[in-house]
Specification:
Blueprint lengths: L2 H11 L8 E10 L4 E9 L6 E2 L5 E2 L1 H14 L2 E8 L10 H18 L3 E7 L4 E7 L6 E2 L2 E5 L3 E5 L14 H15 L3 E5 L3 H13 L3 E5 L17 H6 L3 H12 L6 E5 L6 H7 L4 E4 L4 H13 L4 E10 L5 E11 L14 H9 L5 H6 L11 H20 L10 E4 L4 E4 L29 H11 L4 H21 L1
Helix pairs in contact: 2-3, 5-7, 5-12
Length: 487
């Protein structure tokens, strides 16, 4: 849910007299490859006489039927919420709560054709819990409840996502923001889209921070021309044409400080519906791509599916004689309450169509349209500045330094050493932000294309020389020995 929606529900459910209260909302699904998320769409406040507050609060049938009718008309599912004023952490159901939700499960399904969602708010620490009712007998508990705004707040179901133990390698990390923050941050599922110079660095540092689940998405391979930026990639990686996600996975496992880390490799394009489905399984996404089309897809996911997207990039400018003129890098987090990439001028709608058609790589088109050739300069010394800027956004989003969240979009100008805060605001007719919580009803931007699949298939089918294969085998054996001895 958005932070604004959560505040509205919290303000109603937590009463000044200390009694319980009830509330009804609606939701829409966001369906990933392995996970389904219920996105809270609207809050339906009770009218006079539609609920009883007498220690244990209760709904009236009139309230539930009215809300069910509104949910059906909007094509949404039904959410029944109640508060436990003295509750703290993930709340379980009392026998009375269970009976109430079970009783209304049939009403919700008959009206909306969707499962009932039950939610509870603990009044002591404003922690949420949630469960789906797929039948009247037993609820299916959610893994977490996320409130998305410039600060990301997550309540975890410890039974499904246990708090990981702090390892000796994490002592300084934990001393920076405490065990409670570490326990939440480490359980986040984070996806890095683009495993180039910036993405590769970010992925390793997330693993070193102690995250348990990190995914990397890229369908490209390491080349010799990448080695001045992809720190950790080797000449052997380039000679073998290893996939960037395989190299990232190897380096992440080496850097990991958690006792058990799961690195997921996704050799797909985020512009493909398969890539989008994968992305919807994650809690936070790093956008480390520089093309308009993939950035537009991620821009849409940030709002339609309430998955914070941390985006940025670098542009270097040179004089005619090749000397460095200037460098600019940017960092911004896309969440409700902050403007999207289009609103801050970092995404042009027309460029998305051109990118789909491949015209941004066509020299004849670029010349005929009098467009500038896309900048391709980058160096390791400065790409590290971009990754650090994006990671600072991640820390602000999840650890809330100074009890603040992510800042307005930032831009650093190298030549004058100035850090600028953008004054851009959300456009009133922004198609991305106006689609907030659209979920599965999002306007599709991704499309099935064979280009990236061809690249992956050609790499997989390529045969290398016997000498290269022998060196790769030796490297693999040495790595296994190291893991056995150290582990």
């Amino acid at each position: 849910m958005t932070g604004e929606t959560e505040a509205a529900m919290r303000d109603h459910l937590i009463r000044s007299d200390g009694q319980e209260d009830v509330l009804i909302a609606t939701y829409g699904p966001s369906t990933g490859l392995e996970r389904t998320t219920a996105l809270i769409r609207s809050v339906i406040l009770p009218r006079d006489g539609e609920r009883h507050v007498h220690g244990n609060a209760s709904f009236t049938s009139a309230y539930v039927l009215r809300a069910a009718s509104e949910a059906r008309a909007a094509g949404h599912g039904l959410v029944l919420l109640h508060s436990h004023p003295g509750g703290e952490g993930w709340q379980r159901l009392s026998s009375m709560d269970r009976d109430t939700e079970s009783e209304y499960e049939r009403v919700a399904r008959a009206a909306t054709k969707m499962p009932l969602l039950g939610m509870t708010l603990g009044g002591q620490d404003t922690a949420w819990s949630a469960r789906f009712w797929f039948d009247r007998t037993t609820p299916t508990w959610a893994e977490s409840v996320r409130s998305v705004s410039p600060t990301l707040a997550v309540t975890w179901n410890d039974d499904l996502r246990a708090v990981p133990g702090v390892t000796a390698s994490q002592e300084r990390t934990v001393s920076s923001w405490g065990e409670r923050a570490q326990g939440s941050i480490s359980r986040l599922r984070v996806l890095v889209v683009g495993s180039g110079s910036v993405g590769l660095d970010i992925a390793q540092r997330l693993a070193a921070t102690g995250l348990l689940n990190v995914g990397v998405m890229d369908y490209d391979a390491v080349e010799t021309r990448n080695l001045d930026r992809m720190i950790g990639a080797t000449r052997l990686d380039a000679a073998l044409g290893r996939s960037k996600v395989d190299v990232a996975a190897r380096l992440m496992k080496s850097a990991a400080t958690a006792a058990h880390v799961e690195v997921r490799r996704h050799e797909v394009s985020i512009t493909d519906p398969v890539g989008v489905s994968i992305a919807l399984d994650y809690d936070v996404i790093f956008s480390c791509v520089d093309r308009p089309w993939p950035r537009a897809v991620l821009n849409g996911i940030a709002y339609a599916d309430l998955i914070p997207v941390i985006d940025g990039g670098i542009a270097l400018d040179t004089f005619a004689d090749g000397r460095l003129r200037n460098g600019i890098w940017r960092a911004h987090t896309l969440v409700p309450g902050r403007p999207c990439m289009a609103c801050i001028g970092q995404l042009v709608a027309g460029d998305v169509s051109l990118d789909k058609l491949g015209l941004l790589d066509d020299p004849e088109y670029i010349k005929g349209a009098n467009r500038e050739v896309p900048s391709s300069q980058n160096v390791a010394a400065l790409s590290a500045s971009v990754s650090s800027a994006l990671l600072a956004q991640f820390v602000s989003l999840t650890a809330h330094p100074g009890r603040r969240g992510v800042p307005d979009p930032l831009r650093y100008i190298l030549s004058t050493h100035m850090l600028e805060h953008s004054t851009a605001t959300s456009g009133p007719y922004c198609p991305y932000e106006n689609a907030t919580t659209a979920g599965d009803r999002r306007t599709p931007i991704a499309e099935h294309r064979e280009g990236w699949r061809t690249i992956v298939n050609n790499r997989t089918a390529k045969k290398h020389s016997l000498r290269l294969r022998a060196v790769a085998k030796l490297e693999s054996v040495v790595q296994r020995v190291i893991n056995r001895v150290v582990g």
